[in-house]
Amino acid sequence: MQTAVLTAIIALSALALFSSFLLAMVARAFAVPSNPKVEEIEGALPGANCGGCGLPGCSELARRIAGGNASVDACPVGGDGVASKIAAIMGASFVGGAVRRAALVLCAGDDQVAEKRFHYNGIRDCTSAAILFGGDKACSYGCLGLGTCAGVCQFDALHMLPNGLPEIDPVKCTACGKCVTSCPKNIIKLVPVDKRLHILCSSHDKGAKVRKICAVGCIGCTKCVKEAPEGAIAMQDNLAVVNYDFDIPDTVAAACPMNTIQIKVMDGSGEEAEVKAAAGGEA
Amino acid sequence: MKTLILIIVSAVFVNNFVLSRFLGICPFLGVSKRIKTAAGMSAAVIFVMTMASAATWLFYQYILVRFRLEYLQTVTFILVIAALVQVVETVLLKMSPTLYRALGIYLPLITTNCAVLGVAVLNIQKQYNLVETTVFGFGAAVGFGFAMMIFSGIRERMELCDIPVPLRGTAIGLVTAGLLSLAFMGFTGLVKQ
Lengths: 283, 193
Prior knowledge:
The structure holds 2 protein chains of 2 kinds.
Chain A: H1 2-29, H2 36-44, H3 58-66, H4 79-90, E1 101-105, H5 126-131, H6 148-152, E2 158-160, E3 166-168, H7 178-182, E4 188-192, E5 197-199, H8 207-213, H9 223-227, E6 233-236, E7 239-242, E8 261-263
Helix pairs in contact in A: 2-3, 2-4
Chain B: H1 2-14, H2 25-30, H3 35-64, H4 73-95, H5 97-103, H6 114-125, H7 130-158, H8 170-185
Helix pairs in contact in B: 1-7, 3-4, 3-6, 3-7, 4-5, 4-6, 6-7
């Protein structure tokens, strides 16, 4: 009995040893030199394999960049820093300057201010909830607050607050766009971090309906449109939408009767805390 | 020659590896959503199974039998097949990058596939000689590919069908596989062995 076990162990070990030697020999004899740039570029990439660039992973993007099939700034996560490193590896010149972006949830209707239509008791996932009559929020455009976006974030930038809304840390956010596509209500957008004024509502409902179901929704009064520079805020189906090509003065926020317009400092310079709109913001 | 043809017909139709022996169900369900991937997988399986049959037969006859280690058959076969596939993959990468790109992603997937191991064990059980072994391995793999192509074709068409929600995906896939298997059972009795 014991000898049988011993023989088996010895035989198997010998076989394993032999095969590994064989594999090592073959690997050496048939080694294929790969483009060293690929490895270098892969080292420079964030290595998060998030898919933000649209390719299956960082190594695939590295291969594409080395082969000249992708631009040096193809990684949306790495930003200018990574792009300039890759440009150095590739011997290409790279002029940065594109403003970093961060995700922002365009809904301020937390559990206190937004009405609910029914008590949702299903799977704790926004997509599942959205399938069931569009979710429990009375506003059919609003955030369902079940944290599907927080679940897909690989960069620890998105967390659910106790009031049922996600909070995005604009410093950690890399604009990979995963949360944007995960949201069944399509209310997360990538916005440039150097802009301060945001309209936190996605509802296209008429003002009278919004008033009934949400205390902070856009009622389509167009006051902000009139206050802001020409073209900076536009009405789209009863919803005021910011055009981020413009610089809008903070004072415009005060014009909003619903307090939907918020000032957010996202570039990480002066604290992430929300700066409440100036005089009249609480009205 | 007659025996060899009988072996092939038997392996492809009568004792089809997937549909009547129920070996290799994992890739059968896993990579059968598109005909293209199914074809790639089938090609890789044909390649590996033919080679593995011959290699394991030689290994069994000249090493295991000689050292009276027949009882280690299953374990050592896994090792031999895995090592063989790895070697072939490395050689392929150097010798034929085109073939490597076509088979590359499937090769590691099937190193420890039960169909590959199954064919190796069956060869020994049936006491085939080297030629019969290789032909049986090839035939079994062709049978696998045959089932894959039929199944992936059905699945591609099924995408357009209005399937009841609880049955969508793997569930309807298994039902289809069962029906397909029933159809293949009709070949029983075609070859009298």
